[in-house]
Amino acid sequence: MGIKDLEVRKVEFSELLTGVAAGRWTMNTALFVTPERCKTVAYSNPIWALGDGMIVRAGNPKRIGSYASVAKTDARIGVVKGTAQVATAKAAGVPADRIVEFGTQEEVIAAIKAGRVDAYPNTALGHRALLASLRDADLALAEPFELPMDPGGPKRDLARSLSAKRTVPLSLASTRSWRNSLAPTNTARFSPTVSGLMKLLRR
Question: 28 and which of 67, 135, 139, 173 could share a cystine (Cβ 3.0–4.6 Å)?
């Protein structure tokens, strides 16, 4: 890309799309590609694709093993506001009144431990890293976990499926003109989430 200098800014997850769209920085950390997000930002080519998982209380008392299992019970899920998992849950039939939105990941974890919600959906890879860092015996990854099926048929290839309800490619979100504006002498401003690069996997 020809970038010689990189300025990193720490911001909350909710600021990522609005910040890059307003030109406050050049590009963001990797984010799921969604049609709604594509209305305001451009994306690079996909750089990876990840399947979801759910953090639950140890022992998985609600026997959660998929988004569909949440929909069929009285289980409540906690999500970080604005994440792609909100739409995934709704597409799987989870009613809106059982999807509780929080401002930060830490708030979701606290709600699980307090029994206010039963599960926290996000990427399985990121959740494993989070649980390893927390070392909290009260929390666990729901296993086995079944990824949602695309309503139109079997699970699609992750690299091509921008409309799949289970997972979509992650890309670098940027202003629509960023590829043309970067030159070898440019300083690119890059914005990760406030909690550091480890949490990139959980977005």
Answer: 173
